[in-house]
Amino acid sequence: MSITLTERAAEHVSNFITKRGKGLGIRLGVKTSGCSGMAYKLEFVDAENPDDLFFESHGLRVYTDEKSLSYIDGTELDYVKEGLNEGFKFNNPNVKNECGCGESFNV
Fold first, then answer.
1. Which pTM does this prediction carry?
2. Going residue by residue through the chain (107 aa), what tens digit of pLDDT does each one get?
């Protein structure tokens, strides 16, 4: 079981944590949402929860919860620039369908 960051994503997150002046890493989870059923949620972690699971990737911790891990196990988080757009891209091997806008998925 794992969640990983690409080097580019890790550098982006690390720079943002430095600018914030605090943070232990990021939390990746899922929530029920969107037209395909689930959506990713991504936030900074300033304090660990007792039931947190975490993975180390390029010197950063990626936190998640047990329920979310069943949907995102094996996911690689990348940071991409495509034309004028830039942002995180979730390479999740468990996804069977994504909505047209790319905001939600189904496993």
1. 0.86
2. 899 999 999 999 999 999 999 999 999 999 887 666 788 899 999 999 999 999 999 999 999 999 999 999 999 999 999 888 899 999 999 887 766 555 666 77
Strand 60-64 relative to strand 25-33, pairing: parallel
| Helix%, strand%, coil% for the chain, nearest 5 | 20, 45, 35
Q: Are 6 and 78 in contact (CB under 8 A)?
A: yes
Helix (H) or strand (E) holding 66: helix 66-72
The residues facing 28 across adjacent strands are 42
Query: Is 9:78 a contact under the CB 8 Å cutoff?
Result: yes
